[in-house]
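Researcher: Structure for this, please.
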Amino acid sequence: MAHASEPVGTIDPKEAAHFGKMAAEWWDPRGSSALLHQMNPVRLGYIRDQIDHHWQLDEHDRKPLAGRRALDMGSGAGLLAEPLARLGAEITAIDAAPEIIAVARHHAEGQGLTIDYRVGGVETLDGSFDLVTSMEVIEHVTEPRAFVSGLAARLAEGGLLILSTPNRTFRARLMMITLGEGTGRIPKGTHDWDKFLTPDELCAILEEAGLEVLDVTGMAWSPTRGFSLSDDKSLDYFVTARRA
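Model: Predicted structure, token format:
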């Protein structure tokens, strides 16, 4: 068992290398990260709903995160970090792939955004954050419990943690791996179905880490509507939690 001074490493080098190869195309909405571009508006809508409710914010406020520190863990090249910065957050964004962080820094500079991009894993973090997000990341780490524990340790008093991840269902395997990776819409080798977590499993991990689950909402997909928030959690879902 690792002691507090010996954090458990959560980065899978193979996963970091896989996503690192996608770095150059990250901001191309028709490239290898096209699916993330399609998911992003739904993610942002969900996050906005949760922060407005949690902090009783004005839904019309254009800078609702002004004065708050945010962390995006497993940030990729900044698809979520950049909008969070525009919402006023003082944001730190971490990814395991150096190639992706290089692209992220260059893109943010071109947008005139200040984002503290770092290469590393959750175990390299310090400080505390009012908002912690990690979208489609936990299914790629080596130790989900250590990963959640690390995120929980960085959550400020009164802070909010928001995760999203695929559900371990046959539908998710069909849509994301058989069809998604099989047709090339998702780069081959992106997902390992055995590492997907069900909502019950993820909620239990969050509770073990001393957090209280506030909301679980599905993210569904249809050929006509694309991605949308839904009661159907069989494909993918969001979880919001706070300190218990």
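Researcher: Any notable elements?
Model: The first helix runs from residue 13 to 20. Helices lie at 13-20, 34-55, 81-86, 98-110, 144-153, 170-181, 199-208.
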